[in-house]
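FAQ: What does a ligand-bound record look like?

Like this one, built around uracil:
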Amino acid sequence: MGRSPPAPPVTAASAARRAHYLAALGIDAYRSRHAPVAELQPAAEPPAGDAVAAFEPVSGADWGTLRERVAGCTRCRLCEGRTQTVFGVGDPRARWLVVGEAPGAEEDRRGEPFVGRAGQLLDSMLRAVGLARETVFIANVLKCRPPDNRDPRPDEIAACLPYLERQVALIEPRIILAVGRIAAQALLGSDAPVGRLRGRVHRHGAAQTPLVVTYHPAYLLRSPGEKRKAWDDLRLARSQLDGCGAH
Ligand code: URA
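The answer part, i.e. the structure of the complex:
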């Protein structure tokens, strides 16, 4: 993802607004967007009875309610620039959950994740391990497009992560494939680079779901020499299901 333009000057009013907003998300201090995702304060729900009543917890939401809540979300300012939210696509009972970073321009326009060039490569990667796109579920950490293709900011990730965590809980995947740094760090609460996180099986959440990290297809388009490692990662993920008769 590209770099954002320099941030506008911080006035007292904007600092107060930001502090109020971050407090509502359960984040007690602003962190630079360059801070590792692991430095996020709780990726949790705002506490019950919190001043910002609009941020109702989603921890008990069913699939339809969750979808509606995402569609109407105003938890962060990315809602102001979106054409639509991108909830995710595929089989809600899929064995495989693929998690990317955030919608880009094309995804924002079509309301579906991974539909650009990176999406085509992702589809090929999945096909290489015998998976059709419709048989997995594909989601992103962020449900709204960051402007100018910039990286998601920690506060945006903290605001949006409860939706992804609820998707994980409802889908109950047998394997999570985290593609790229943002997804890997957010799901694992780590600040390690992809190169250190890939190549082994992690466990995610209370269900201890196996999670494999691989390179983002957009990175692979720029660095095709790394495709071999991505192939190894996919085979590692696939091996988690071997013997279960599961695809
Ligand atoms: N499109 C998505 O939906 N997610 C990404 O991470 C990249 C492109």
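Follow-up question: can I read anything off the structure? Yes, for example: Residues 69 and 85 are 10 Å apart (CA to CA).
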